[in-house]
Amino acid sequence: MTTEELAGRLGEPGLLVLDVRTPPEYAGTAGYPCDARGGHVPGALNLELSELLGLGDDELRERLGDPGEVGVVAYCHSGQRSAIAVSRLRTAGYDARNYVGSWHEWSADEALPVEPTPGKGRRSAALPDE
After folding, report:
1. Beta strands 125-126; 30-31: pairing state
2. Is 130's pLDDT higher than 90?
3. Predicted local distance difference test score (pLDDT) of residue 124
4. Distance (Å, whole) CA 100 – CA 74
5. Helix (H/G/I), strand (E/B), else coil: 34
6. Domains of the chain by range and CATH?
7. CA gap 120, 13 in Å, rounded
8. Is the pTM of this model over 0.85?
């Protein structure tokens, strides 16, 4: 999925945007120095990759919804963790796609919305390269 496609589909019924980064990355309190902004795509659900991988299919359905009723777009910092998440989600029956540009690309475009609002929850810690 491209940045333009995701931006145009935000808030679309039946589309779940899944952020598989760590909770501090999601909150914007930690991140990578190469990212222009901290935070997450508006409306995204945070489910860290390590937790996602530990869930069985029934647990995934409880957390994300019925695979027949929801499509998933996963992202992380650079598309690597989200590619793993997409593979796992597909084995559970989800129509899942990877946002390859992920947060690195989204954060660089000042025209795109970010949660939390910039200035709130600023990054205070840098993470090692992904």
Report:
1. parallel
2. no
3. 43
4. 9
5. coil
6. 3-126 (3.40.250.10)
7. 28
8. yes
